[in-house]
Amino acid sequence: KPDITADVFNLPEEVRDVEMAYLGHFLEHIPEDKVEAALRAIKDRMVTGGNICIVGPDVNKASEMYKAGALSKPELMATMKSPDDRTPEWAGDTHHWNCTEERVIDFLDAADFTGVTPVPIASMALNPYPVTARSAWQCAVIGYKLV
């Protein structure tokens, strides 16, 4: 269960001194041009030394798994940007951009996180976070607020 459920662009005032933030399958649901602002909004509420962990689909890994026969076409398509003509099943059920490890790293760098590091999805380094699945088509990246 999340500690906080809120609009990332309108966080409650009491959300301060955040030591750890976990964004599991979240960023790809935000329009691409707003991702950096979302990360900065979280960073602004973090303590110096706080960390953020982002887990999401990696369309590059999913594509490789599909080519190797380890992922079905519907599973592959579920990791990708939602087609513009697709009717969402529920509010927020849309991927606005194709998430990859490299793009997550770029977004964290742009938001001025430091020590940005990709982490294998099976790594024990993810144990402090509530990662609910360790599927090989996912990416995981950790960054820090040092200033």
Largest sheet, in brief, is: 4 strands, mixed
- On the 0 to 100 scale, the average pLDDT is 95
Spatially, the strands of the biggest sheet line up as 1-2-4-3
Q: What structural class results from the helix and strand content?
A: alpha+beta
Q: Cα-atom Rg, whole angstroms?
A: 15 Å
Q: Which term fits the overall shape?
A: globular
Please report the number of helical segments.
4
Low-confidence stretches: none
Helicity range? 10-25%
Straight-line N-to-C gap: 29 Å
Give, in order, the helices and strands.
Answer: EHEHHHEE
Number of extended strands: 4
Report the β-strand fraction as a percent range: 15-25%
What's the structural blueprint in terms of helices and strands?
Blueprint (H helix, E strand, L loop, with lengths): L17 E7 L10 H10 L1 E12 L1 H9 L5 H7 L21 H10 L3 E5 L19 E7 L3
Parallel strand pairs: 1-2
Antiparallel strand pairs: 2-4, 3-4
Helix pairs in contact: 2-3
Describe this structure in words.
With 147 residues, this protein is of the alpha+beta class. It has 4 helices and 4 strands, in the order E-H-E-H-H-H-E-E. The protein has a 4-stranded mixed beta sheet with strand order 1-2-4-3. Helix 2 (59-67) packs antiparallel against helix 3. The longest helix has 10 residues, at 35-44. The protein is globular and about 45 Å long. The model has no long low-confidence stretch (mean pLDDT 95).
Concise synopsis of the structure shown:
The chain has 147 residues and is α+β, with helices and mostly antiparallel strands.
